[in-house]
Amino acid sequence: SSLRALTGLQPFEGEILFDGRSIRGMPPHRLLQQGLVMVPEGRGIFARMTVLENLQLGAYSRHDKPAVRQDLEQVCTLFPRLRERLQQQAGLLSGGEQQMVAIGRALLSRPRLLVLDEPSMGLAPIVVEAIFEVIKSLSRDGVTLLLVEQNARLALASTDRAYVLDSGSLSHCGRSADMLDDEKIKQAYLGE
């Protein structure tokens, strides 16, 4: 998959540039140090660890403890439900709460590029709405996001630019708002 190649988890042909430099052959931990952080499909939380421990893992390579505490506070402000559950085992949370933990953990690493792989998968509509409000908020705050999402309408409504892959090939690209108004896109991908 493209995201696995981007995050150093899978070898690839060709070239991927991050911040103008090739990342070919760069191991995942080096990519993380460069600021490329992924929230994987399925969330990848540590079920037997507490919510707080999961979040703190996002900052394991940071040495600026006061700033980490401040970022943790910001994550708890973004996701108030997590503040109430900091000492609870992460595996006991709902799917939506686990997604919040995964995004919060990623934010604690201070990403320059935050890659979100199917953040709405398997979540109740009301939780999806809350997650995407946070995604929009992060974007407004200047976090660069790469979002892979099957819910085309939600993805287009939450992003600046969009790229549509059809059977592995790029079929459309452009401003997300323009795609929401494009009749071909509406028929092919939005069910209209």
What is the gist of this entry?
By secondary structure, this protein is α/β, with parallel strands linked by helices.
Could you explain how this protein is built, in words?
By secondary structure, this protein is of the alpha/beta class. Strands 3-4-5 form a 3-stranded parallel beta sheet. Strands 1-2 form a two-stranded antiparallel sheet. Helix 7 links the parallel strand 4 and strand 5 (144-148). The chain contains 10 helices and 7 strands. The longest helix has 16 residues, at 125-140.
Key terms:
16% strand; two-stranded antiparallel ribbon; alpha/beta; 10 helices; 45% helix; 3-stranded parallel β-sheet; 192 residues
What overall form do the CA principal axes indicate?
globular
Order the strands across the largest sheet as they lie in space: 3-4-5
Give the % helix: 40-55%
Low-confidence segments, given as residue ranges, are none
The biggest beta sheet reads: 3 strands, parallel
> How many strands in all?
7
N-to-C order of helices and strands: HEEHEHHHHEHEHEEHH
Evaluate the radius of gyration.
17 Å
Describe the secondary-structure layout.
Layout: H1 2-6, E1 17-18, E2 21-22, H2 28-34, E3 36-39, H3 51-57, H4 65-78, H5 80-84, H6 95-107, E4 113-117, H7 125-140, E5 144-148, H8 152-158, E6 161-166, E7 169-175, H9 176-181, H10 183-189
Parallel strand pairs: 3-4, 4-5
Antiparallel strand pairs: 1-2, 6-7
Helix pairs in contact: 3-6
